[in-house]
Amino acid sequence: MEEKLRVGVIASTHGIKGEVKVFPTTDDLERFKSLKQVVLDTGKEEVELEIEGVKFFKKFAIVKFKGIDNINDIEKYKGKELYVTRENAQRLRRNEYYIADLIGMKVAEDSGRYLGVLSNVIKTGANDVYVVEMEDGKELLIPAIKQCILDVDMEKGEMKVHLLEGLLEE
After folding, report:
1. Bridge partner residues of 114 (DSSP)
2. Which of 151, 15, 134 is nearest to 75 (CA)?
3. 106, 48 Cβ separation under 8 angstroms
4. How far apart are CA 44 and CA 47, in angstroms?
5. Cα separation of 74 and 156, whole Å?
6. N or C: which end of the chain has fewer CB within 10 A?
7. pLDDT tens, the chain, 170 aa long
8. H or E element: which one contains 19?
């Protein structure tokens, strides 16, 4: 399991007082309100930053970090990723999982037939869609709904699914 979870990417600076526009990679932009600190991956090192303030503009979080009060101090971090440690991550409800933990899971049908490895999660309006890379190189798309996702075993890294008619082309 990943020790850090990505929550955003610094898209650009905002004004001259050290604020940045952050493009969220989390499904809930509002979660930035409750964040106290993040880890900035500079490419060379990881730097812990304390969040001083957050406001919102369109699809971005405008974030002000404590101790960074000048555009010149933050400009070099454009395009860099922001993470939270697992302890600071948003709490999950029952049957919710972090995408980072799902990627790489072995996926098998309820009949026991091995299908492949979960390689991606596509966010849609209604429900997520799990992308399974099959051994023949084809991709299988499975809606993340309770009729299809029967069991997720985080310990074993395995997922049991039921394929609705038409999902798997023979």
Report:
1. 108
2. 15
3. no
4. 10
5. 42
6. C
7. 567 888 899 999 998 999 999 999 887 778 888 888 899 998 888 889 999 999 999 889 999 999 999 999 899 999 999 998 877 777 777 777 878 888 899 999 999 999 999 998 888 778 888 999 998 889 999 999 989 999 998 889 999 999 888 777 65
8. strand 19-24
Q: Which residues contact 23 (CB under 8 A, 6 or more apart)?
A: 8, 9, 10, 11, 59, 60
Strands (DSSP E) contained in 74-169 are 81-85, 106-109, 114-122, 129-134, 139-143, 149-153, 158-161
**How many angstroms separate the CA atoms of 129 and 143, rounded?**
4
Question: CA geometry: angle at 75 spanning 69 and 79, to 5°?
Answer: 130
Question: What is the reported pTM?
Answer: 0.67
